[in-house]
Fold Benzoylsuccinyl-CoA thiolase.
Amino acid sequence: MSENKESKKPEKKPAEKKPDITFFHPDLLQVPENGDPPYLTGYRCKSCGNLDFPKPTICLNCWGEEFEVVPLSRKGVLYSVSDIFIGQAGMKTPYIFGYIDLPENLRILAQLQGEPGTYKCDDQVELTVGPIRMNRDGLPIISYMFRKAAN
Ligand SMILES: [Zn+2]
């Protein structure tokens, strides 16, 4: 007798698991849908006006708890830079980290786009958006990065 393959078909696969996170820092980075350039969000204390990034739980100046979101400058100056050759899991090496000084007197840690050895202190850099690492499913996680400024 022939096997009745039809009736032995395995049941439908369970629903696929939800894709892992692919966009980091939604409360730090805004990417306007109208095509305007992305910007980082600073948090200005409503009590004393102190500006901070990333979002603090309380104002480090006055302990205020209410903040106004303000767009930060897209361009800054590289304060320091490190090429990383032994990285964290999920991060393809080599990659580059730097501290960027923004005109708002904020110093921001971010990944830099490009090849190791191509940045030096005092380089003009600008905000961009790109893959900062891979998620558990091997898909790129998108967040803020900096790259050499156009001019
Ligand atoms: Zn404050």
